[in-house]
């Protein structure tokens, strides 16, 4: 697989001079209440030509996290390489295309299994299914219902069915003549998600409320309660690149932090 990826990249470089090279990334620095400062940097380089594009993602030590090539042939989009992010590295080949209202794809992991994926929008509901032929498939759906943005995700792991639910709505906002909405309060509730809202947690429930305060920034309060009744509280203020936060988990003391995030 790696030899095939290198050959594909070489073909792109040799057959076409790159028309553009784009640089983007995100820097994150965090200062905790013990005075310890940590930082992280993810940098993405994309070299593109008429034939396709090569993407390289580097971490703060300049080690390669991702490396893959993309190209389209006869309406089929091909993606070859490693795009696993900070997870364990592995190479794969993906091919996807549009058939009517649906997007279908197949992924072959180097030395591993083949999976099939599909996604489409039906009556305002966006549905995506990963590994569709497997009983352990993952299904996500999102829609706008009565002013609420609703997200549902289901996955089967072993004999367990993992279901995550989320809903949010902005109230008391104003919209100007140009259609730009500002102000108001955004209220969110969730079930089956951990306190960070980035992974499944059985029996967990939570929610948040946020608003923009003139001269201060965006103020947000969060709460999450685990299946074992461990409560997590969070309060944050974001202004520009800076976010000051107070977080408390269970009976432990609350912790303060200051984070700077710069996207480029």
Structural features, described:
The protein has 264 residues and is mostly beta strands. Among the domains are: 1-90, no CATH class; 172-264. Helix content is 5%, strand content 65%. It has an 18-stranded antiparallel β-barrel. A hairpin with a 5-residue loop joins strand 3 (53-58) and strand 4. The chain is globular and about 55 Å long. It starts with a helix and ends with a strand. The mean pLDDT is 91.
Quick recap of the structure?
It contains one helix and 20 strands.
How far apart are the first and last residues' alpha carbons, in Å? 32 Å
Helix content: under 10%
Structural class: mainly beta
Radius of gyration over alpha carbons? 22 Å
Low-confidence runs (pLDDT<50, min 5 residues)? none
| Number of helical segments with 4 or more residues | 1
Largest sheet: 18 strands, antiparallel, barrel
Average pLDDT value? 91
User: How would you describe the shape?
Assistant: globular
Chain-wise SSE layout:
Blueprint lengths: L1 H14 L4 E13 L4 E12 L4 E6 L5 E10 L2 E7 L9 E8 L2 E8 L4 E9 L2 E6 L7 E8 L2 E10 L2 E12 L2 E2 L5 E2 L2 E9 L6 E14 L3 E9 L5 E9 L2 E8 L5 E9 L1
Q: What are the key terms here?
A:
264 residues; two-stranded antiparallel sheet; globular
């Amino acid at each position: 697989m790696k030899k095939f990826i290198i050959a594909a990249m070489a073909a792109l470089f040799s057959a076409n001079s790159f028309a553009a090279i784009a640089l983007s990334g995100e820097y994150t620095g965090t200062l905790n209440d013990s005075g310890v400062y940590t930082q992280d940097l993810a940098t993405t380089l994309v070299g593109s030509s008429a034939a396709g594009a090569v993407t390289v993602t580097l971490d703060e030590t300049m080690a390669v996290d991702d490396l893959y090539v993309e190209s389209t042939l006869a309406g089929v989009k091909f993606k070859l390489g490693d795009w696993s992010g900070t997870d364990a590295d592995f190479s794969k080949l993906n091919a996807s295309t549009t058939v009517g209202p649906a997007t279908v794809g197949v992924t072959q992991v180097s030395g591993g299994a083949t999976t099939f994926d599909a996604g489409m929008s039906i009556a305002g509901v966006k549905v995506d299914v990963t590994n569709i032929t497997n009983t352990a498939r993952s299904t996500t759906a999102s829609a706008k219902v009565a002013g609420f943005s609703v997200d549902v995700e289901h996955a089967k792991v072993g004999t367990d069915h993992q279901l995550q639910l989320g809903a949010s709505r902005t109230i008391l906002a104003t919209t100007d003549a140009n259609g730009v909405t500002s102000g108001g309060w955004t209220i969110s509730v969730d079930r089956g998600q951990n306190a960070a809202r980035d992974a499944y947690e059985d029996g967990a429930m939570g929610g948040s409320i946020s608003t923009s305060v003139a001269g201060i920034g965006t103020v947000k309060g969060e709460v999450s309660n685990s299946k074992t009744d461990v409560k997590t509280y969070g309060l944050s203020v974001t202004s520009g690149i800076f976010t000051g936060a107070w977080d408390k988990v269970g009976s432990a003391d609350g912790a303060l932090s200051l984070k700077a995030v710069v996207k480029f």
